[in-house]
């Protein structure tokens, strides 16, 4: 393992003013996004949409890296330049989603286990040759009646640790993503408790597998009220509880925490990140973003699948990237 390469890449991904664009929706998930703007899910539609985001002029001031899906990593711009090369020309680092999805956990009907470890070593070597320098694996934890089970948390933490170790062996920085879903009517207390348990198990597993903490990024959910909860915690409370939970469970050796947006609307996701950085400027890690929907929603609508609306889509993406860049150091001004 080349520790210098890993730590340098991890730090570059959370460089001042910058965060990550998650544009790694699987073909099934992007189908839903395209359907929302009445665009057919063809390979060319997926390429055009990703090209719009990836070639937005000036976005390199706010975006350090882009997470892509397998298909996207092999696609090219209109000018024939492979996406990873087009990004690299602007100083943006290419990332790749390497899990193969969250599947039902046996004997635990409402819970999921993320798969994709079989053959992963060879796939990682191939992805690195094709320009990727970091990877992502998402584990899903569901809050419900009697869930999450210990089996679900421990199995997912174990898979995340095995994935992270394989990535570091291949000189790819692993983004370790244990997502506690915001679906449900649970309180923010319950979210904090489950997030704490999950992060505790994840770091136990990472240590057990000798993963270099300086060479990973953590991608967690924020500590937030369930979507259906009657009482919705305010922005400052989300910020305070999230940072408290991280301080208790995330070692200072980790260079950065890059949040997922998880279904929050785009402005709320920015406001939460801003409050965390404004209220807690002395955190041991960088607190930044790796948003999917919260960076893409407005761009997707503005573009609408129309070639003549490319500029409008890019303008919307630029706007959100700039806002989150400011929020990442508590300087966002509504
Ligand atoms: P959202 O920000 O839409 O949650 O997506 C982030 C992500 O990469 C989920 O794996």
From TrEMBL:
InterPro entries reported in the protein's UniProt record? Aldolase_I_AS, Aldolase_TIM, FBA_I
Tell me the route in metabolism or biology where this protein functions: Carbohydrate degradation; glycolysis; D-glyceraldehyde 3-phosphate and glycerone phosphate from D-glucose: step 4/4
CDD domains noted in UniProt = FBP_aldolase_I_a (cd00948)
Which protein family is named in the record? Belongs to the class I fructose-bisphosphate aldolase family.
**Is the keyword Transit peptide in the record?**
no
Q: Lyase: is it a keyword of this entry?
A: yes
Q: Name one Pfam family in it.
A: Glycolytic
Please give the catalytic activity noted in the UniProt record.
Answer: beta-D-fructose 1,6-bisphosphate = D-glyceraldehyde 3-phosphate + dihydroxyacetone phosphate
Class of enzymatic activity (EC top level): lyase
Give the matching Gene3D superfamilies. Aldolase class I (3.20.20.70)
Record protein name field: Fructose-bisphosphate aldolase
Q: Name one GO molecular function term.
A: fructose-bisphosphate aldolase activity
Q: What is its EC number?
A: 4.1.2.13
Record keywords: Glycolysis, Lyase
Query: Entry's PANTHER family?
Result: FRUCTOSE-BISPHOSPHATE ALDOLASE
Which SUPFAM superfamilies does the entry mention?
Aldolase (SSF51569)
Query: Mind listing the GO biological process terms from this record?
Result: glycolytic process
């Amino acid at each position: 393992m080349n520790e210098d390469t890993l730590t340098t890449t991890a730090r570059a991904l959370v460089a001042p003013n910058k965060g990550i664009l998650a544009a790694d929706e699987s073909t099934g998930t992007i189908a839903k996004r395209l359907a929302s703007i009445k665009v057919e899910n063809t390979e060319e539609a997926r390429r055009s949409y990703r090209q719009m985001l990836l070639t937005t002029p000036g976005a390199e001031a706010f975006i350090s890296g882009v997470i892509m899906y397998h298909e996207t990593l092999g696609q090219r711009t209109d000018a024939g330049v492979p996406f990873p090369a087009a990004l690299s020309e602007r100083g943006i680092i290419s990332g790749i989603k390497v899990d193969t999805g969250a599947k039902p956990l046996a004997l635990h009907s409402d819970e999921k286990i993320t798969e994709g470890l079989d053959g992963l070593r060879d796939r990682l070597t191939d992805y690195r040759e094709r320009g990727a320098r970091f990877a992502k694996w998402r584990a899903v934890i569901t809050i419900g009646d009697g869930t999450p089970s210990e089996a679900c948390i421990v199995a997912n933490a174990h898979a995340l640790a095995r994935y992270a170790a394989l990535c570091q062996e291949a000189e790819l920085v692993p983004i370790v993503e244990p997502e506690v879903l915001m679906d449900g009517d649970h309180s923010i207390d319950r979210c904090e408790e489950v997030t704490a348990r999950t992060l505790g198990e994840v770091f136990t597993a990472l240590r057990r597998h000798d993963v270099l903490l300086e060479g990973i990024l953590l991608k967690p959910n924020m500590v937030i009220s369930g979507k259906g909860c009657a009482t919705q915690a305010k922005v400052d409370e989300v910020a305070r509880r999230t940072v408290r939970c991280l301080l208790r469970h995330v070692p200072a050796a980790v260079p950065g925490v890059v949040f997922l947006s998880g279904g929050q609307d785009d402005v709320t996701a920015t406001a939460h990140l801003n409050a965390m950085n404004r209220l807690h400027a002395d955190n041991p890690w960088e607190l930044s973003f790796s948003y999917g929907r919260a960076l893409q929603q407005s761009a997707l609508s503005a573009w609408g699948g129309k070639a003549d609306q490319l500029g409008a889509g890019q303008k919307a993406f630029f706007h959100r990237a700039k806002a989150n860049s400011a929020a990442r150091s508590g300087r966002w001004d509504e």
